[in-house]
Amino acid sequence: MRTLILCSLLVGCSAGEGALSDPTELSDASDASASDAGDDAVLDTSGTDVGGDTTTDTPVVSDAGVDGTPADTAPDAPPPPSCPALAACPGTPAGLTEGGGPRAIERCAFVLKDDGKGPAYEAAVVGLAAALKTVSVADVLGDLNRTATSIGASTLPGVPGFQRGFSWDADDEGKDWWIPQGLTGSADASAAGTVAGKKVVAVSWYYDVTKHPGSTGEKGIRLSFADVTGTKVTYRHALLVLPKMAAGRADFDPIDIHAGGIAWVGDRLWVVDTGNGLRVFDLSRMFQVATDKDSVGWDGTTYQGGLYKYVIPQIGAWIDGSKCAPVFSFVALDRTATPPALVTGEYSATTIDGRVYQWPIDLATGALAANTWATGAWSMGQRQVQGAVTHGGAFYFSSSAPAAGKGVLYVAREGKKTLSYPWVDAPEDLLFDTKANVLWGASEGIGKRWVFAVDATALKTP
User: Fold this and answer.
1) Rounded to 10 degrees, what is the CA torsion of 52, 55, 57, 62?
2) Each residue of 34-76: pLDDT tens digit?
3) Which residues have a Cβ under 8 Å from the Cβ of 172 and sit 6 or more positions away?
4) Taking the CB of residue 247, how many other CB atoms lie within 10 A of it?
5) CA separation for the pair 15, 251 (Å, rounded)
6) Residues 219 and 17: beta-carbon distance below 8 Å
7) Checking DSSP bridges between strand 310-320 and strand 234-246, what pairing results, if any?
8) What is the pTM of this model?
9) pLDDT tens digits, one per residue of 131-158
C-alpha cells in the first residue's frame, strides 16, 4: 500500500484517454457473465443521455439521508472542538514501545482546512447535471453487472470470528493494473447500516498505467459498490473524477492518486490523498456516461468514463494546515467517538511512530468544518499499518509487518499491551459495522483479493 493528495468541499452544497486499443478492456455494460472481457463485457451505449441531453433527473437532497435512508441526527452533540493556536509539532512520546499501545500526542498541532475550491467544482457539477443523466446510489445498486465468488473460513485459516467473505470476479482478481485499497460501506453511510434497503460494501482501486498493456492513458481511481445483503454478492465499478470547466464546457478528468482509504458518510465519500489530506465526492449526484470509447471526459461528441457507465464527481478537499507533514494513508469512520470522527493514519515501513488521528465529522451532513482540528492524535506503536479504525475506545490496526506473507490485526488501547490476531496477507483498509458489531477487512494481492467480515466479539480488547 502506498500513501497519497486532496482538494475542497463546499459545505452545504451538493458539491482523456484515446480510442479503444486493448481488446480485453471492453465497456462497462450489464453482462456480468463474461468474466474475462475487460471492465465489462459488452459495449453499452443505450440510455447514456450524453452530449447535450438536458434531462437531469437530479434527486432532491434533504435531511432524509442517502436514498431516503433516515438521516443521522445528533441534536445534543457539542460543537467540534477548536484550538487557540497551532501547537508545535510533537516528537516521539515518552514510553512508546512496539506493542505497548498507542501514546497520545498534542492534537492541536494538527488541523485540516477547506481548500476553497468547492465553488469551482460546484459550477462544473451543475454543468454536468445539465448535460448528463444524474443517478443515485439506489440507481447504481439496481444496475450491478458483476458477480463475486463467496469464500469460506478455510480461505483465511486462523482469522478469528470469520463470518463471510468474497473475492472479485476472475477479471478483477487477475488485473494487476487495478489495485484495491480503501474499504467502507452502508454501515458507515447510515446508522441503520443499510442504503436503499441494502447492505453495501464499497472498495476503492487505483490504476497503474505502467502495468496495463496497450493503455490509452490515465484512469485514476474507481469505486466498487457491492451488494452484500444476501449470500450472492454482485457489484459494479464507477469512476471517481475531478470536475472542471474547459472552454466554457463542463468536463472532468481522472484523478491520479492512491486512494488508500475511504469513508462513506451520508451522501459524501471521503478519500485520502496521501501527502495532502482528504478529497470528498458527491454520491447523490453521480452521472451516467457513454461507454463506447476508452477515454475520460468530453471527447468532442460525448462524455466518457474510461469504459465505466457511471462517474462520481469530486466536490471539495480538506488539506493539511499543520507544519507536521501528516500522511493520509487510510481513513475510517468511528460512530462511537465523541464527537463521531473520521480516523486517518500513516503507513510507515521503518518506524513505530506512525500517527493516527480523529477528525470530528457531522453525521447528519457528512461534512467537516471549514477548519477541522483533530480531536485526538496518537503515535501507534506499530509498523507497516495499512488500515486503522477506532471503536469504543479501542484501536484496530491491520499490518503487513509479519514475514512470510502473514498479515496481522493489532487490537490496542492507549498505554496497554497490544493484542495480535492472525489476519490476511497484503491487508488494507478496515470498516467497523457498529450496528452488527462486525469488523470488515480487505486485501490487495493478485488472485487473493478478499473482502471479509469477522465477529468483533472474537477480538478481545486489552
Assistant:
1) 80
2) 333 344 433 333 333 333 333 333 333 333 456 655 556 544 4
3) 146, 178, 449
4) 6
5) 15
6) yes
7) parallel
8) 0.86
9) 999 999 999 999 999 999 999 999 999 9
What are the cell numbers at 246? 474547459
Task: For residues 201 and 141, give the distance between their C-alpha atoms in angstroms, rounded to a whole number.
Answer: 11
Q: Which residue has the cell 475511504?
A: 262
Q: What phi and psi, each to the nearest 5 degrees, are found at residue 130?
A: -80, -20
| Distance from C-alpha of 353 to C-alpha of 416, rounded to nearest angstrom | 16
Residue type, 22: D
Within 202-310, residue ranges assigned H as helices are: none
Written as one letter, the residue type at 52 is G
Q: Are 68 and 196 in contact (CB under 8 A)?
A: yes
Helices (H) and strands (E) in the chain — how many of each? Answer: 4, 30
Cβ neighbours of residue 165 closer than 8 Å, sequence gap 6 or more? 150, 151, 152, 155, 156, 450, 451, 452, 453
How far is it, in rounded angstroms, from Cα 137 to Cα 439? 23
Q: What are the respective helix, strand and coil percentages of the chain, to the nearest 5?
A: 10, 35, 55
Helix (H) or strand (E) holding 402: none
Q: Which residue shows C-alpha cell 501527502?
A: 275
